[in-house]
Protein: Aldehyde dehydrogenase (NADP(+))
Amino acid sequence: LRSRVGRLIADRMPTGVLVSPAQQHGGPFPASTQPGFTAVGLPAAILRFTALQAYDNVPDALLPPELRDRNPGGLPRWIDQHCTTADIGATP
Structure:
C-alpha cells in the first residue's frame, strides 16, 4: 500500500472527505489553486504536507523498521524536539 497511498489509518475511521475530480478547494466557483487560499495549490501544499506517508495509530509491528520504537540500526531520528539514536521510551 505504501506505493499507492499517502495515509494509513489503523483502528479508526477516516475523515469522510471524498476526493473526486469535481472537488474544489479555494472558495466559490471557479476553484482556485492560489497558494495562499488552498491546501492543494503549489508551493504552499508541498510546504504543508511534506511527508510522503502518514501512519495514524498504526501498531509498531506494522510500521516500517525505521519508524518503530526500537532503533537497532542507530538511525538518527527527531523525537520530542531532540535528535537521538536511542529507542523510543528509553531513558537517557
